[in-house]
Specification:
two-stranded antiparallel sheet, 190 residues, alpha/beta, Double Stranded RNA Binding Domain, elongated, 6-stranded mixed beta sheet
């Protein structure tokens, strides 16, 4: 392999690894007896949303993203809805440990030019990183029966720092990916 190809392959591998860490993993479940064709309107289920343990600002961001996605799917917000939309969230710190073992190259000894490892084998200890992983659940509840008919869950990294634009973009991505699973009949035809 040419020397130039190795760095390019390494960069491509790191980019792939980085993009896989930022993706949203989505699962959904539904009531097989529900007739999803009958649902055309929705309202937010305030009781459920109030219980979500996130900031009011993030709740507003999530609800705006849901409104946008429901609108693109032909749903209208209504005082007498067919569906009630509720959300809840979970969050956990994830610790990743990578063991780099023994590596050859410039040594890691007691300092510049000092110690037995200069220019020989060196020990790279484990590399530890942490990240926050969150899950957003979107529940669709039949407004008449008050029974859950569909639930979607998106799980992914929440590391966006203090950048509000990135936070809003990430929330929109979560909501879009979750609601792409609705209605379940669309999944069967794909």
């Amino acid at each position: 392999m040419k020397p130039l190809h190795k760095p390019l392959l390494f960069i491509a591998f790191i980019a792939l690894l980085g993009s896989s860490c930022t993706s949203v993993r989505v699962l959904s479940d539904y009531d097989r007896t529900a007739n999803f064709d009958q649902y055309r309107s929705y309202a937010f289920y305030k009781t459920g949303i109030d219980k979500a343990q996130i900031s009011d600002l993030d709740k507003k961001r999530i609800l705006r993203a849901i409104e946008t996605e429901m609108g693109t799917r032909g749903f209208v917000k209504s005082e007498q809805p067919d569906l009630l939309v509720s959300i809840f969230t979970t969050e956990k710190e994830r610790v990743d440990i990578y063991n780099n073992n023994l590596a050859w190259g410039w040594g890691w000894g007691w300092g510049w030019g000092w110690g037995p490892y200069w220019g020989g084998a060196g020990w790279w200890g484990p590399n530890v990183s942490t990240r926050t992983e969150g899950a957003l659940y979107i529940d669709l509840i039949d407004a008449q029966t008050r029974e859950l008919i569909w639930q979607g869950r998106g799980t992914g990294s929440l590391n966006y720092g203090t950048n509000v634009d990135k936070k809003e973009e990430r929330i929109r991505e979560f909501v879009s990916r979750i609601l792409s699973q609705y209605p379940p009949d669309a999944l069967v035809s794909n």
